[in-house]
Design the sequence.
């Protein structure tokens, strides 16, 4: 659910206006309250509506994800309904799958209907029916696969005891016949009420701009059904029994005896109940033990808590809308005094001098794809050219001959490769940081070059070493029960050693590259016996890289300067793709010309620099120091290994 929450929050922050936050709060409180209404279902169990599709139809699926997630979080934290450890699974089914499937089903069958069509509530009811049954299918699968995945050697289930052959018919039967129709009726009636109250639905919000005074009136109309629903919550006490699959440990044991003829309590269920991962339990089971007054009190507390939790989102959006208003006010629209047109003939967003309503109808900013591509090419070009700037600094390593640095790099890489202790590798990295600072290289940039890339590229390779199946030892926590997989302390230590070792090795190479001119580095490589062909390829690749990126930046800047109005992202992607093809053609043509020019000038792979290399005493001292450091690193590592 984490990527779903992140995406939904970003979309809500982009689309939702400040004055719509009370609508979201009231809608989430409505979802919370309607879930307190238990309906008798098959086999003595109960079911309840969710109203997630209603919130999606009202404010959009992203807002529904946020609102229902908040409602489920309040349920788990304060009222012990659902439990904290099941929060992610509950949100995936009821806050994600239900409103998304329900909304897109509603959109599919209502896309040709008018704004005030009397069939809109029916379409919303059909979408709600589809959404809650999709959630039921996912819950049935999540429960039904557990006996096959988590069981003891004697076949007893550790958690849920019934397979798909039981969960799918039970969940679908209840929701197709009971919960689904209830969800559809609640959603249809609510949408009809919204239409009569003048509350615009999500698909229609771009067609009208709601004034602040109108928003207050609409919110007053939304308070009425919520208060009526809270007053009627004691009706939820009439249906007795737990929802199917929501039994406690004793209830699970009873179901196992009735359905399977066995007598046991799943150890995982018993352990979970013993640890009581059911939140704060301020009003456990919505205060049902206190009767009608406790149930109403729980509804009031839940609704108020949800509104308070979503008020933070309103504060964030208020700051954003204020910034937009200030930007719009800074650029007032001047009307021609001699014009015969009045402001009544202008769109409202133009007459008022603000572009908020107009920009609200555009879901995405204008052509960010091309802008991001241009910024990335410019950053890469600056990065490459920066490598030619830092070697010109009057730093400690810049004064060392390139051959000494290249030979020292090989020595230290060898020593780092065989080092097996984390403390020694960390000390080596501290020396590299000190050397970078003495050479005038920004430490932040130097560290980001390595540690932003190393975990990304090698994390998937070294993480298995932390597991018990690769590195046995003291187990920190379990990842999987059957087969047994756990994260071990020796495994984490080994993974950290590998990670730091690779980071130190890359830092060594980066330090040499950032303090040595490219031409001098290639000349040093050639003097150490690197084949001419390899040196030639490196030299040409580097020159082509700088030239081609500069060309790409110029082409993108020219395109941006000649673009009038707002371009779509599809246009930007098409242009970038075309540019890549053009760049490939230019590269092929340019390679022949450059090769002919270099051959005509006698280039055969030997790199010549303006200032010839000159070996000094400081270079010999540096090389000997690195040799001593490498030997010391290997020796201390070996001694520490013998002692341990």
Sequence:
């Amino acid at each position: 659910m984490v990527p779903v929450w992140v995406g939904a929050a970003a979309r809500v922050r982009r689309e939702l206006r400040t004055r719509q936050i009370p609508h979201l709060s009231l809608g989430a409180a409505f979802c919370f309250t309607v879930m307190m209404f238990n309906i008798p279902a098959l086999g003595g169990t109960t079911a309840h509506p969710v109203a997630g599709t209603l919130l999606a139809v009202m404010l959009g699926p992203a807002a529904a994800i946020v609102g229902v997630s908040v409602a489920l979080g309040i349920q788990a934290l304060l009222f012990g309904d659902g439990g904290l450890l099941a929060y992610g699974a509950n949100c995936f089914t009821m806050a994600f799958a239900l409103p998304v499937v329900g909304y897109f089903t509603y959109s599919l069958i209502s896309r040709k209907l008018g704004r005030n069509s009397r069939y809109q509530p029916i379409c919303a009811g059909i979408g709600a029916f589809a959404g809650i049954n999709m959630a039921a299918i996912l819950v049935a699968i999540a429960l039904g696969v557990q006996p096959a995945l988590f069981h003891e050697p004697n076949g007893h289930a550790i958690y849920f005891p019934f397979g798909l052959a039981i969960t799918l018919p039970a969940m679908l039967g209840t929701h197709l016949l009971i919960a689904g129709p209830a969800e559809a009726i609640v959603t249809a009636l609510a949408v009809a009420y919204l239409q009569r109250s003048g509350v615009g639905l999500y698909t229609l919000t771009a067609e009208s701009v709601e004034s602040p005074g109108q928003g207050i009136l609409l919110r007053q109309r939304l308070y009425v059904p919520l208060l009526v629903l809270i007053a009627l919550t004691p009706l939820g006490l009439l249906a007795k029994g737990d929802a199917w699959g929501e039994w406690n440990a004793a209830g699970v044991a009873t179901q196992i005896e009735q359905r399977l003829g066995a007598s046991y309590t799943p150890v995982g269920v018993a352990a979970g109940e013993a640890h009581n991962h059911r939140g704060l339990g301020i009003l456990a089971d919505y205060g049902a033990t206190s009767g009608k007054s406790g149930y109403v009190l729980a509804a009031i507390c839940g609704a108020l808590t949800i509104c308070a939790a979503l008020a933070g989102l309103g504060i964030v959006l208020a700051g954003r809308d204020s910034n937009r208003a200030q930007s719009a006010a800074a650029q007032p629209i001047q009307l021609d005094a001699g014009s015969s047109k009045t402001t009544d003939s202008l769109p409202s967003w133009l007459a008022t001098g603000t572009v908020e309503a107009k920009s609200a109808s555009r879901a995405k900013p204008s052509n960010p794809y091309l802008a991001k591509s241009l910024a990335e090419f410019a950053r890469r070009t600056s990065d490459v050219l920066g490598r030619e700037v830092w070697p010109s600094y009057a730093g400690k390593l810049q004064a060392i001959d390139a051959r000494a640095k290249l030979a020292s790099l090989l020595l230290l890489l060898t020593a780092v490769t065989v080092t097996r202790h984390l403390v020694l590798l960390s000390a080596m990295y501290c020396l590299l940081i000190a050397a970078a600072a003495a050479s005038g290289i920004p430490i932040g940039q130097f560290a980001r070059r390595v540690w932003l890339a190393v975990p990304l590229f090698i994390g998937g390779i070294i993480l298995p070493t932390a597991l018990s199946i690769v590195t046995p030892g003291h187990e920190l926590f379990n990842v999987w029960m059957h087969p047994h997989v756990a994260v071990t302390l020796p495994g984490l230590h080994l993974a950290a050693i590998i990670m730091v070792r690779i980071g130190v090795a890359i830092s060594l190479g980066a330090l040499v590259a950032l303090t040595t001119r490219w031409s001098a580095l290639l000349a040093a490589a050639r003097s150490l016996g690197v084949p001419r062909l390899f040196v030639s390829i490196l030299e040409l690749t580097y020159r082509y890289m700088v030239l081609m990126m500069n060309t790409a930046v110029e082409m993108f800047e020219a395109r941006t300067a000649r673009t009038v109005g707002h371009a779509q992202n599809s246009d930007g992607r098409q242009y970038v793709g075309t540019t890549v093809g053009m760049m490939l053609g230019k590269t092929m043509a340019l390679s022949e010309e450059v090769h002919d020019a270099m051959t005509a000038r006698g280039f055969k792979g030997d790199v010549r620099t303006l200032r010839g290399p000159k070996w000094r005493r400081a270079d010999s001292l540096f090389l000997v120091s690195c040799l001593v450091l490498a030997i010391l690193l290997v020796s201390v590592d070996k001694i520490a290994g013998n002692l341990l």
Notes: Residues 292-329 form the longest helix (38 residues). The two ends are 44 Å apart (CA to CA). The chain is about 65% helix and 0% strand.
